[in-house]
Amino acid sequence: VGSAAASAAASRLSSPEASSRVSSAVSNLVSSGPTNSAALSNTISNLVSQIGSSNPGLSGCDVLVQALLELVSALIQILGSSSIGQVNYGSAGQATQIV
């Protein structure tokens, strides 16, 4: 992905539509629980579908980049609102399996 495409995707994050999609993604991920791998997959699929339908001029790659940026935004929102206790560093393998 070129820097121009990445810059354009980042600028689209400030749109009301992106904010709405990120809010929905946060809601879906939080309500599904931390170990529901299907929730992550469904969230990505929903983002790709919504972004593609509302931005017909974007390439498939641009849609995917936008969806992943919005997913990262949702995850940052969740982490920023969380109270994190002791971190189990040994469970990294389990986390990668969920993803």
Automatic annotation (TrEMBL):
Transmembrane segments: none
Highest taxon of source: Eukaryota
Lineage of source species: Eukaryota, Metazoa, Ecdysozoa, Arthropoda, Chelicerata
Name of the protein: Dragline silk spidroin 1
Region (Disordered): 1-20
Organism: Octonoba varians
One Pfam family cited in the UniProt record for this chain: Spidroin_MaSp
Residue stretches making up the Spidroin C-terminal domain: 8-92
